[in-house]
Design a protein that fits this description.
The chain has 330 residues and is of the alpha/beta class. It is 35% helix and 30% strand.
Length: 330
Amino acid sequence: MSKVRFGILSTARIARTTLIPAMERAYNVEVVAIASESGKAEDATKELGIPKHYDSYTALLKDPDIDAVYIPLPNQLHKKWAIEAARYGKHVLCEKPAALTSQDVEEIAAVFVEHNVIFMEAFMYQFHPQHNRVKEIVASGEIGELTLIRSTFSFPHDMNPNDIRLNRELGGGVIYDVGCYCIHTSRMIAGEEPVAVTAAARIHPTHDVDMTAAGVLTFESGVMAAFDCSFEQLFKEKYEVVGTKGSILVKRAYRPDKHGGNGVIEVETETGQREEVIQGDQYKLQVEHFADCVLTNSQPIYSEEETIKNMRVIEQLLEDVRSKHEDSGN
């Protein structure tokens, strides 16, 4: 097998407009089928030039010509269909968040070990080479001892009531949706797990989901990470790494694909300031890494254990948000 043959579970927009095109650019992937339980699969395959369509997810999973599936379903369905895929011997690339709790991810991981297949949560941004460059600069000592990480990811939500991001029961809310990136960044750059977290959020009075949130993670080393995320602000996506001798600003932290794949980092120290432009196709690189792992039967660099750790921090933050919300009498 020289290419991993993918099936797509659902006709979700991110699959049609982003992941499937990335798979077509990848050297080691072939998309062979789409499944939809809403009757849209045939039209999607015609539009995208994909050979097969199925009217049920199970029918696609039974196809022996499919090696792996991509799951862009609503958050609360990730666990169910990831486990089903594993039972049919399919490898899984799953949209974030992988599930709604760390226990759910632990259960997913156990099933994948049992069936000897690979699972990876699709945190695509980490595959852009600009982040390795940031870690190189930090390790070099150029900005001194790491003290603080600041991150932000926001966009103005159109408030479509049918959007699952506004449905708490379906895993909605801004922390699950984009705050998770800030949390991941904080852990990735710090290189350790937080020993304390705190957060606050504005909860929508009707939808009962966090619309704007901010939090602080404290690490054992003394490094602190502050983040904010929102459905109520203009689009912004950046993080800053601050040390005792300087700082690194990552200006297009999570969606450099909106700028032709060009990431921009700005390094500032007492001796001056410089800007580095780093190019990368993060979605393509993510897909190629996952497919390489399938072809070589090796574990992804972003393992289930890392997914579990990230989810534990999300859970702690959401618990803090909810407890404060309840204490306020809302």
